[in-house]
Fold this sequence. Notes:
By secondary structure, the chain is an alpha/beta fold. The chain is built from 16 helices and 15 strands.
Amino acid sequence: MIFGKNQYEYEVKVCPCDEPEMLEDLLNEMSEQDWELYMLHEVDSKDGDVNYNCIFYREIDESLRSENNEIVDVSDFKSRMEKSLSPFNSPYDQCKDVQRNISLIKSEIKKIKNLLDSPSSDIEHEELNKKLSEKLEELEDLKEEFGLILEPDLMYDRVNQPKITIVISDELLPLIDNEKNGELIAESVKLRQNLTDELGYVIPTIKFTNQDTLGENEYRIDIRGINVYSGAVYPEHEMFYEGQINIEEYSEGIIKDMDEFSSKNTIWIPCSQTKTFWEKGKNAAEVIIENLKHIVCKYVDDILDYKDINNYMELVIEQNPYLIQNLIPDIISVGSVRYIFSKLIKESVPIKDISFIFEKLNDICEDLSDRDVIVQELRKNLSKQICTSIADSEGNISAVLLSKETSDFLDQFFQKQDEEYDGKEQDVKKYNEYIDKISNIIENSALDYNNIILLVPAKLRAKLYKIADDISRQIRLLCKEELSDEFNVEILETI
């Protein structure tokens, strides 16, 4: 590594995150050896624990420098180090590295043996024998490591996929750099806290990694290794929706784009130009996390697992063991509980009052077996919690109401959707008109999306959910039975 005319060497040490004293001892030990801490990087270990990878550097002693010292240009050093620390080397890469090291050690052993066999009287036999012994031990260690790499058990470490992964391009690396405040990491912690407080939904560890194949300023969200969303953000810019601010002329540095979720045009303006704006835009990290919030709720079926359900049940057992003992597994399975919780979270129904939910499940499940019917009945019992999460500070909820005529048409339309019949084209046209009308009312409302609901019959709520999600990721669907009397519902318009 080069800084000006000086050359530096670096070393990486690993320390468990839950051992602060060990970390302190490591820092002191390295400091005594003239090492400086370059970066502290938090990563998941193969065993599922979380470790600190500590990168240290120091100036190379000229007397110890050899031709084999690796030199990395400082401008690229940071990104290379981050890339090397983010993923574990593949078994193939490990195999090639060990083979290469074995070859080098054998070559060094051969040279030492040749020197020992030399008739020259200037050779320090004792020193060479000591060095030969060290190299032979090193060779044995490498052979042992090589044997482990060849074992198929190593492949089991590659079976499990992280639940949530955010993959970023090189240009976005500063977003996960702790020395530059690591905005994306901080925002992800904030998201976990907000989802827990709002819904009782605890999202798992998010893995951040870098990939060269992504385009400039691109990022990707993977759920269990499958790409579910891709987009682009622009550091040192703030994002505004078109029409959110009045700009007559676009100055240099402004970037036009589109928000994939809302299909709205966006404008990215350099932060240096937004200091006097009344409206506050979103920075790159906030945009990524806002989209991640939608993704983790949309794909909750893939994220929420049996271990999570067990954690919820343990919370209930601490307060009232009977609620679990009476219910599971004789009346309802853990799998059914996971299905019900996933349905509730996906539609932004809070499960935070976990003991109350299990009380209601005990009441409901005695007479019901259909999981979707159980979800519907549970929603009715959670009407106060649902309305509280939607209402404004005055207890008001704004609604778009589907008339009986519209509801009857949509019910028949869904029933005949997969059938061939005369007039299907006209029905599709009429259906699209209804959807466009709902969309226009929502978009043109001056109210916060979070306080608007689409009021629909219970039999249509589940079928209309996906359609409403496509119109706006924030609109909520409720039926009349889910409206609590303590709240005032204002009908914006009837369709």
